[in-house]
Amino acid sequence: MSKLVIISNRVASAAEGKRSAGGLAVGVLDALKRQDGLWFGWSGKVEEEADNEVAFHRIGRIDCATTGLSRKEYDDYYRGFSNGTLWPAFHYRIDLSRYDKREYAGYLAVNERMARLLQPLVDPDDRLWVHDYHMIPFARACRRLGMRNRIGFFLHIPFPAEGVLRTIPPNRDLVQAMCDYDLLGFQTRGDARCFLDYATRHLGLPLENGSVLRCANGHGVRVGHYPIGILPEDIQEQAGSNRGAHLVATLKEGLQERKLVISVDRLDYSKGMVERFNAYERLLESVPSHRGKVSLLQIAPSSRSDVEGYRHIRRQLESTAGHINARWTELSWTPIRYMNRTYERAELLSLFRASQVGFVTPLRDGMNLVAKEYVAAQDEEDPGALVLSEFAGAADELSDGAIIVNPYDLDAMARALDRALGMPLAERKERHGVMLRGLREHSIREWRDRFLADLDRPSADARPT
Ligand code: ADQ
Q: What GO molecular function annotation could you give as one example from this UniProt entry (predicted)?
């Protein structure tokens, strides 16, 4: 029987499988749980020399195969081109994106090495599903080895507009490498449109039937949008369980009846945390009745701390939170609680449920699963309100129930917070109901099924055999 092979930069260890802070890991684990398959990628270990060993472990029923990276590979492929060039540019931070052609060579070389290590583990009729920006040229590397499997690619982060993409010097090579997939999936219609815009206008490739790109070698690539979802029932169950009860009790004791605004993000400059803190301060300045009556809890586990942009945002957040707290704190009230730790999933979800407002305001985000998890974790009889950035992919689906904000507009964000904090129960229930219905209809299972069904569709192919 053919199997599903998932390829991503990082494969969770057995322990992380239970306690992961990455959106991709959450998605992959949920998608593979019901399907026999293999998850292949980097182990997370950095060694002096790459040894080309593949190690195997299991997460529940899921088989995983991993390899280490050498120090140089880590610097060039991971820290360099993936997170120093692609991540910032794809999140529209061209001021932070820098290019080094040796790092790009390292990025291509790791993709080629990974493809060589995977090849013996794959049967000809296995389907390959490659994830995210670290692995864009993976299919090209497989094709060069003669692999003819069906290969799909899903991009978890935004795909930028042509003018932004072109600031990455090898933009043409990257997009040409994407032509070796059978299916390209993006989070939103807007992302797919940006890709097609570049490919049709800049590379001059024809688009057939609205969704099949005819590449220079004659191969047809299907292009679509597949917004990643969650498992709402699972989240409701975990949020309502008593696994987080001790945390909620401690939290409530500290809050003393104050309202709680909660934000949870990986510590990343794309998540808009500085703007968020400033908007919260704007609320305290402009609506004095909230002073001493509300608390903002920002949970932000540190990530990629050896990439310069990340050290900078960390310092900036510490100083902004410190400044706001120094200005407003009273003996019995601290306006912002800012912490850099992770929580078990069930604990985090019960904190979502214990809050009155979810404040999710990235400057750019492929989807943002936290926004969806926040909605699913609420008590249906007394749900919290969601304030959501228009630049999160999730805004496409949640705009009927969330208060949508522009995260660059501090006054509008402060007004949205004020509105969310004072929203009557009937309105909260109505908005929550609308969002929850959408999340149930478009769960992560539907995401996986739709992507794989499209990957199986008779190809629009003219690939010569
Ligand atoms: P991320 O940028 O990691 O993912 P997100 O979608 O919000 O962002 O996923 C984060 C996940 O980690 C969520 O499931 C969240 O619950 C969990 N998490 C965050 N902080 C945590 C903490 N302190 N403790 C425990 N768990 C924590 C990338 C893209 C997103 C896209 C996802 C999935 O950047 O735009 O939505 O992939 O495609």
A: alpha,alpha-trehalose-phosphate synthase (UDP-forming) activity
Pocket lining: 22 vs ligand 1, CB cutoff 6 Å: yes
- Domain 232-441, classified CATH 3.40.309.10, yes or no: no
Beta bridge partners of 201: none
pLDDT at 461: 53
118 lines ligand 1 (CB under 6 A): no
* Whether the Cβ atoms of residue 106 and residue 137 lie closer than 8 Å to each other: no
Alpha-carbon span 19 to 39, nearest angstrom: 17
Q: Is the dihedral of CA 100, 104, 105, 109 positive or negative?
A: positive
Please choose, from the candidates 259, 278, 263, the residue with its C-alpha nearest in 3D space to the C-alpha of residue 420: 259
232-441 shares the fold of 4-229+445-456: yes
Chain center to CA of 153: 15
Give the model's pLDDT for residue 459: 64
Closest alpha carbon to 37 in 49, 28, 27, 46: 28
The length of the chain, given as a count of residues: 465
Burial of 380 (0-12, 13-18, 19+ CB in 10 A): exposed
Joined together, the tokens standing for residue 255 give 């809050």
What's the 119 CA to ligand 1 centre distance in angstroms? 30
Active site residue 156: yes
The domains of the chain are located at 4-229+445-456, 232-441
For residue 205, report the distance from its CA to the centre of ligand 1, in Å. 34
Q: Max alpha carbon distance in the chain (Å)?
A: 75
Q: Whose CA is nearest to atom 12 of ligand 1?
A: 21
Between CA 80 and CA 86 the distance in angstroms is 9
- Marked catalytic residue, from 126, 132, 365, 442: 365
pLDDT, averaged per 10 consecutive residues of the chain (465 residues), comes to 91 74 64 81 92 90 93 97 98 97 98 98 96 98 98 98 98 97 98 97 94 92 96 92 90 93 96 98 98 98 85 94 98 96 91 98 97 97 98 98 98 98 98 98 92 85 47
Nearest CA to ligand 1 atom 16: 370
Superfamily of domain 4-229+445-456: Glycogen Phosphorylase B; (3.40.50.2000)
The two structure tokens encoding residue 211 = 């969704």
Specify the 3-state DSSP secondary structure of 204: coil
- CB of 405 sitting under 6 A from ligand 1: no
CA–CA separation, 330 vs 284, rounded Å?
Answer: 13
Among 156, 290, 432, 442, the active-site one is 156
Pocket lining: 266 vs ligand 1, CB cutoff 6 Å: yes
Dist. CA 154–CA 141, nearest whole Å: 17
